[in-house]
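Running this now, will post back.
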Amino acid sequence: MNSSEFFVELNIDSTITESIMNKINDSTPDQWITILDQNLFKLSIDDFASDPKMCKVIKDLGAQERLSVLQFNPNVCFQWHKDKVRTGAINMLLRGFDSFCAFGTIGKGNLFTEVQKLEHKPNKYYLMDVKKYHCVFNFSEPRYIISIGLETTYDETFKYLTENKFI
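Update: finished.
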């Protein structure tokens, strides 16, 4: 199985990492929400203002209400799962580059096969098929990742991104 069946790097370079990390560092505990063992910090479309291509993607896909930063503690593994609410996601890792996300298919005896490892590059967005099994391994430092929740499927979003030359 090819990794593009699970995820693909977008042709969009981001410039918002520093401003988002400053916003997180200046945040207070009451600005964070805990959902499904993850800490979540809400973002707005204004936070993407210096990334005009990503602003276009967010608006075109109607994702303005599903913008956030997810935080994972050091030395954790978020178990294999398929997302239940979101049908797709575009993510960008801000901090925690010794972490990775793995995708795979489930085989006999709950053995995951065709495993593909996504190692995020700095300032790069990735379209991810969160309806396929995936997990996160985080190691030495807190992991912060921008997550844009989508209501469009991976295939629909892939088609849109390809047509607009973002892939």
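The mean pLDDT is 93. More later if anyone needs it.
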